[in-house]
């Protein structure tokens, strides 16, 4: 049985708002929080939840969104909700409110709303795939490799809810009138067309038709470099402006989330790992060779500012330690140095750099000042890496581009992965990279020397 496309979809978001607000208010009344002004507290929570969800786009989950997107939204929403919840005590002078009951309220709210959101996400996927509900009827204009890939997505990813109806070629036999009649007669919801296959006047004609008939039109970019980038569209007064690079971490909310993750993660490592591991590693280093326990090296960070990057010393001290990169079979590496470099233990002191705000847990790896000056002149777009804080690990490192740069292709590919990370940052991506780094460290890596 097929249901009319979008028949009830406009009610999904309002219903989710209402359900979540009911959960919040019901739990607040049931739990012994001991508030003096219940109406003030309930109104405060409700307004705060709506404002936070608007800012984090908590209810903006597109049909093609990945599950990691849902988890990221949940994490962002509840971090801010936690802060706002406990801020009520100070804002409204409520010393008698039970902190423990507030924690129980937060935990219960987190579990119930998170479960509801995940359940709704999975339910909609199943609903579209098996019952053909909440669908969008689509046609495609064009005939090239990207178009065929898009059609394959429509036909195989049934959970997205796209009902592919027809493909129109944009070559000699293309008749706009025939295409437009088909769209109207078959009540098509969305039109996808290839920019590469259409002439300017055809694009204008299609846009005018879509506007006049209340149809959504979406474009598949061609292979020109400008369209392969993640473009940012803005208005200066009434003038449309395209920016070639949109950096997610320029958004204050994203920057706060990343910094919060960095602080929390680095603090956990410092307290529960480095607190007992540092004295042990220090003793072994001192017993094997003369010199300091920690090795510090000047590197370039965000906006090319220099800072001292810390490591456990893994080599014998030499005069050119700040200039020469470690190589395979390097005679300077000590016996304990081979072990801690192989397992990446030597990098752990950089969590102090993270805690101090000089680095991030995940980001482009910082290079020696000498190498930054060199590659900045030789490698195209190398300096883009410095738009964000450098990281202990990064996307390039999890893809095999870590350690010694043996060929120009190594640094070129490293820069490509770093720029992709900068332009596509998300908290879920950071967590994924951290997990892959841990797996790689356990397995051992070929270039970890």
From TrEMBL:
Topological type in the membrane: Multi-pass membrane protein
Keyword Cytoplasm attached: no
GO CC terms: membrane
Keywords from the named record: Membrane, Transferase, Transmembrane, Transmembrane helix
Family, similarity comment: Belongs to the bacterial sugar transferase family.
Bacterial sugar transferase domain mapped to chain residues: 258-441
Protein location: Membrane
Top-rank taxon: Bacteria
Principal location: membrane
Name of the protein in question: Putative colanic acid biosysnthesis UDP-glucose lipid carrier transferase
GO MF annotations in UniProt: phosphotransferase activity, for other substituted phosphate groups
NCBIfam families, alphabetized: EPS_sugtrans (TIGR03025), WcaJ_sugtrans (TIGR03023)
Taxonomic classification: Bacteria, Pseudomonadati, Bacteroidota, Flavobacteriia, Flavobacteriales
Regions that span the bilayer: 12-33, 39-58, 70-93, 105-127, 263-285
InterPro entries recorded: Bact_transf, EPS_sugar_tfrase, Undecaprenyl-P_gluc_Ptfrase
PANTHER family xref list: COLANIC BIOSYNTHESIS UDP-GLUCOSE LIPID CARRIER TRANSFERASE, UNDECAPRENYL-PHOSPHATE N-ACETYLGALACTOSAMINYL 1-PHOSPHATE TRANSFERASE-RELATED
């Amino acid at each position: 049985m097929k249901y009319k496309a979008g028949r009830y979809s406009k009610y999904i978001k309002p219903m989710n708002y209402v359900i979540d607000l009911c959960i919040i208010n019901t739990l607040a009344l049931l739990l012994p929080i001991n508030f003096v002004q219940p109406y003030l507290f309930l109104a405060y929570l409700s307004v705060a939840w709506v404002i936070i969800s608007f800012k984090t786009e908590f209810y903006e989950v597109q049909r093609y969104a990945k599950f990691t997107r849902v988890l990221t939204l949940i994490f962002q929403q509840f971090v801010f909700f936690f802060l706002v919840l406990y801020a009520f005590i100070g804002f409204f002078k409520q010393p008698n409110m039970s902190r423990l009951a507030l924690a129980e309220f937060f935990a219960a709210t987190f579990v119930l709303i998170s479960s509801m959101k995940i359940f709704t996400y999975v339910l909609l996927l199943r609903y579209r795939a098996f019952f053909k509900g909440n669908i969008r009827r689509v046609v495609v204009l064009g005939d090239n490799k990207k178009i065929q890939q898009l059609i394959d997505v429509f036909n195989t990813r049934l959970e997205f809810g796209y009902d592919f109806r027809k493909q129109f070629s944009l070559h000699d036999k293309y008749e706009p009138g025939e295409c437009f009649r088909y769209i109207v007669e078959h009540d098509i919801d969305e039109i996808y067309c290839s920019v590469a296959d259409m002439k300017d006047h055809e694009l204008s004609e299609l846009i005018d038709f879509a506007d006049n008939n209340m149809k959504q039109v979406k474009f598949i970019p061609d292979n020109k470099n400008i369209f392969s980038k993640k473009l940012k569209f803005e208005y200066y007064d009434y003038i449309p402006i395209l920016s070639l690079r949109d950096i997610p971490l320029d958004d204050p909310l994203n920057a706060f989330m990343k910094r919060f993750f960095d602080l929390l993660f680095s603090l956990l490592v410092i307290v529960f790992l480095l607190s007992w591991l540092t004295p042990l590693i220090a003793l072994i280093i001192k017993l094997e060779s003369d010199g300091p326990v920690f090795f510090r090296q000047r590197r370039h960070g965000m906006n090319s500012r220099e800072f001292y990057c810390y490591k456990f010393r893994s080599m014998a001290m030499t005069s050119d330690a700040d200039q020469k990169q470690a190589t395979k079979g390097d005679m300077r590496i000590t016996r304990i140095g081979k072990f801690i470099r192989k397992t990446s233990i030597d990098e752990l002191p950089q969590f102090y750099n993270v805690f101090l705000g000089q680095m991030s847990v995940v980001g482009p790896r910082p290079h020696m000042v000498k190498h930054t000056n060199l590659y900045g002149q030789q490698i195209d777009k190398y300096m883009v890496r410095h738009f964000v804080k450098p990281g202990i690990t990064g996307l390039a490192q999890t893809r095999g581009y870590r350690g010694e740069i043996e060929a120009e292709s190594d640094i070129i590919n490293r820069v490509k992965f770093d720029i992709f990370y900068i332009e596509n940052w998300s908290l879920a991506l950071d967590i994924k990279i951290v997990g892959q780094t841990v797996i790689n460290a356990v397995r051992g890596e070929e270039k970890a020397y």
